[in-house]
Amino acid sequence: MSQATERLERYLEDQLGECRSEDVDQRLDELGNLTAAIEGGRIDRELDVLAALSNETRYTLLRVLVAAGEELCVCELNAVVDVSESALSHAMSDLVDAGLVRGRKDGRWKQYRATNRAVAIVTVLDGSVSVDE
Question: Is 17 exposed, middle or buried, given 0-12, 13-18 or 19+ CB atoms closer than 10 A?
Answer without folding.
Answer: exposed
